[in-house]
Amino acid sequence: MFDILPSRSGQILVCGHRGHVIDGHENSRPSLQRAAELGASLCEIDLRQTRDGRLLVFHDDILDNASTGTGLICQRDHADIARFRTRARNGLPIEGQPIELFEDMLAFSRELGLGLIVEIKDKFEGSAYLEQVISALGNAGMLDRVLISSFDYVVLRDIKHLEPRIRTMGINYHHLTDPAAAAGSASMDVMNTDYPQFSADLAKGLHAANIGVSHYVPPPQYFELRASYGVNYLQTLAGFLRAGLIDMLVCDDVAWTMDFVRANGLAVAKVDAIQ
């Protein structure tokens, strides 16, 4: 089981958001493989369920924006969707990849030595969906190598109730009055906060409650124009890293993030290296 508080030992987890996607297809085998080659600790993937109950690795509820298919995933069977291929959102002419089944991506990630963040995207009723996720993790031997994530904190509470060994990560886009209390209400192990809501006080409060601190950061190009106006968030981020306030950086560009982390004196934690 990997350490979710590596900042205490001068390390940090680097997570490829949907894999290394800056020049590839999100949620695909090549994006995960490239992230692993670059040295990522984990990759984040997204779950959707088909009409016939299969779990797919795909971000949107519709096929139209990131594949050669059309329509709602929940209204199509897996055999139908399997005919389609991924399509790059940024328009790069990259060869399309299969839309993968969850169990296949779990096995592939284990072969690569990658941990996973598995984001549950669908809305559902009852416990059958979560039980299916838990069963897939157990069958793949990945229970101790995965964080289950969601914007829906009830989902995180419920999956931990069903399987206490699972560790969870809440996704936060807001400036919360008491982040540690919000995390505690769902029994989450890690909280991710996106730019620009992240702050030192938020991180310190979570760490005081023994909750891991994750931070999603857009690609560096996002900050270039702002830096020319005198607002250099990457300099601020470097200060956060050196102060040990962040346990995991989630990013689209794994290569840049690895260089940034190392330039600030941190070692990248590996899932396989931590017992």
Q: Could you characterize the architecture of this molecule?
A:
This is GP-PDE domain-containing protein. It comes from Devosia yakushimensis. It holds the Pfam family GDPD. Residues 12-261 form the GP-PDE domain. The protein is an alpha/beta fold. The protein has one domain: Phosphatidylinositol (PI) phosphodiesterase (TIM Barrel). The chain is built from ten helices and ten strands. The chain has an eight-stranded parallel beta barrel, surrounded by five helices. The chain is globular, with a radius of gyration of 18 Å.
| Total DSSP E strands | 10
Number of helices: 10
Question: Strand-residue fraction?
Answer: 15-25%
So what's the overall shape?
globular
Are there runs of 5+ residues with pLDDT below 50, and where?
none
The CATH superfamily title: Phosphatidylinositol (PI) phosphodiesterase
Structural Rg: 18 Å
Mean pLDDT: 96
CATH 2nd-level architecture: Alpha-Beta Barrel
Query: How do the SSEs run, as a string of H and E?
Result: EHEEHHEHEHEHEHEHHEHE
At the first level of CATH, what is the class?
Alpha Beta
Instruction: Specify the biggest β-sheet.
Output: 8 strands, parallel, barrel
Described by its quaternary structure, the protein is single chain
Domain GP-PDE: 12-261
Organism: Devosia yakushimensis
Protein name: GP-PDE domain-containing protein
Pfam family, one: GDPD
